[in-house]
Fold:
Amino acid sequence: MLKTTSISHNYSASSSFSFPDISCNSNETLLVLGNSGVGKTTLLHILAGILSPREGEVLIDGTSLYKLSSNRLDRFRGQNIGLIFQKPHFVQSISAEENLLLSQKMSGQTPDKSQVKTILEKLNIYNRKSAKNYQMSQGEQQRLSIARALINKPKVILADEPTSALDDDNCESVVQLLQEQSQAVGASLIIVTHDNRLKNIFNNYIQIN
Amino acid sequence: MNILKLAWKNIIHNPLSLLLNLLLLTLGIGLINFILLLDNQLKDKFDKNLAGIDLVIGAKGSPLQLILSSMYHIDAPTGNISVKEARPFLREGHPLIKRSVPLSMGDSYKGYRIIGTDYSILDLYSAEISEGKRWSDTYEVTAGADVAKKLNLKIGSKFKSSHGFSDDEDLEHEEGTFVIVGILAPTSSVVDQLLLCSTKSVWDVHKHQGEEHVAQDTVPAPVFDMSRSSLLSFGEEDITSVLIQYVNKTNFQALSMPRNINENTDLQAASPAYEINRLYDMMGTGTKALQLLAILIAIVSAISIFVSLINSLRQRKYELSLLRVLGGKPISLFALIILEGVIMAILGFILGMLFSHIAMTLLGDSLSDKYNYDFRAWEVHGKELYLFLVSIALGFFAAFIPAILAYGTDIHKNLSQG
Structure:
């Protein structure tokens, strides 16, 4: 589970952000809604262990992220946080399957092909395992993103605008897929978005301004 | 999928820039090694064939030419000298001279030189008979190991000689059929490339043929057996040169002998050690220029690796951030980029080695056609290990700054821009 207390951050004296406290239990989904420019990406990066906030604490399963040494934070992030980017980013030179194997390796686990196979099958893209990401359709890339976020069975899955480029039908199915898969690994799912359509799907949301 | 494998995948993901980098590396490293190979092998050849010879005496002309023709058999002789003139150096019992070897040349068979001499040449090059016997009668030949093998000469094989040293049938002597009576064991010296016969055989071939070679005296020739004294009983007959070993190389009189000969006789005396060093000096200038060029290309290849890595970093800034998000440490990114540089350098080294040894094989073939010299083109020399380490260092330093940049990847900034 994820819990934050009185996070605030500023890049310069003139622009500062304070965020409401967030709490999200395992198997739960939390929507963080907000318009552009309110610091959604900043919050996401703080939650993901990428950006150290000026003040406040982020607890994941009882571990305070920014009290870890930077090496241990890297390792912790790899093992416990699954991140889904707005645009799908992959290592270009290697295949879909290899990207997932790399994910396992980077987080300090032993790469396991059968596990990769299971998750690719679950997301219906196992037949594309040898494709490079630029050879895949946008939908396939998004599924691969989700697969990568799940592969290490993280405690928390953070999704950055996963639906912004999708039509209503696809929006709903992607979000459902996300929710199902997060629950399958028992993770907390936090979706950071400006997409108000999602309010109709999830009742658990907070608004930031 | 580990860092090493990822580095490899990244390299081959960009085939064009890989091609350019490898091309430059291959040229740079290959050229450096080629020069080293050539230098080594030539020096090796020259040194081996020094055979403890302290002095070469022959007709006036270029001293280097005298050395090259008499010791290495790769240039035309400077001319001939008469037995009478050479007599003081050929006779037994000279207080300063341990061994002297008379050489008569001018003919060849299929590009291999026929040398009229006596058995002292076998002692000089520590050559032993492996088959048959030593030449003794006129037109009898004992062949060096390489000639016998290359021309497939057996005991009893017969051939006619050609005038000059090129393989030209138009210049074939009509008279005098040589016969192989023996084959020498390999010595890895120049003797392996020679056809040895008596001095008299060389005279006889030329007596029968052209007017210019006809001896001026019509007095019946003395009897010739293989002994030195029978050689010295001739007077106006020509030989080409004499190879000399001193009793004591540091003897003062021995040291002044070349100058005495050059100043007081019509002969020329040349010191191999001195002339060969002069030759190395001359080669050295050319080699140095080539070496500089090769080093320049190697530096350009390092710059090319540097530029391609910097460019790829720009394209890969999300990828690198991604690796960090996935749990990779900054040092892993550093290692990734360094590995990319080093792997390219190792590939370049391997291709460079192939390039230089293939070039050496080709050059060796053409040199051995021309001079009947064998080069061991695929022999690995100690400096190749050193060159390997230099290549790795080149890859490392070319990748160092890009790797530092990768180490400092700001994940938050990169991902916010995406």
Remarks:
- The longest strand of chain A covers residues 2-10.
